[in-house]
Write a structure and sequence with these properties.
By secondary structure, the chain is an all-alpha fold. The chain has one domain. The chain starts with a helix and ends with a helix. Helices cover 80% and strands 0% of the residues.
């Protein structure tokens, strides 16, 4: 089935919904790809939707997260412990990334386990003051690699059923 034929078969809603699911911080594409396949998308379409959805928040996180955290501290002091936890996580992951720089960032994002991924990589890049134009390609490479790993796992599980 080619792309034009697929688009005309009303799977656009499932594609967009898979993108939205993949934008959620903890879920990311680790949950987005299986979700898309469960919604009836072909594996390639679920992968594409999840990768795109996972990448959409990344530049905003890298550029604005420090300002968002500062605003949260000022307006909602009760959330200080949450902000502290997120900053601590970013700094811990940042140590790993700082050793290998952009390759380390790609590896951190590529590992499809909890506590890694595009959101964590973007947080680490922001707190390491990595320039957006250099951090984005590393995150993209990591997201694509993680997406391939999850797609292979999803295909294996679906094949078993």
């Amino acid at each position: 089935m080619d792309i034009l034929q697929w688009l005309t078969q009303t799977k656009v809603g499932e594609f967009v919904f898979t993108m939205l699911v993949s934008m959620i911080p903890v879920v990311e594409l680790r949950g987005g790809i299986p979700f898309g396949v469960a919604q009836g998308l072909p594996l390639w379409a679920a992968w594409l939707a999840a990768v795109i959805g996972n990448l959409i928040p990344v530049p905003f996180i890298i550029v604005y997260i420090r300002r968002v955290f500062q605003w949260m501290r000022e307006k909602f002091p009760r959330l200080n412990s949450l902000v502290d936890a997120l900053e601590t996580k970013a700094h811990l992951k940042g140590r790993l990334v700082s050793k290998y720089k952009y390759l380390g960032l790609a590896i951190l994002v590529a590992i499809p386990l909890p506590g890694t991924g595009a959101w964590t990589g973007a947080l680490a890049a922001a707190f390491l003051d990595m320039p957006l134009r250099r951090a984005i390609p590393s995150v993209i490479v990591g997201v694509i690699a993680a997406g391939i790993a999850i797609a292979l796992l999803t295909h294996g599980v679906v094949s078993l059923m």
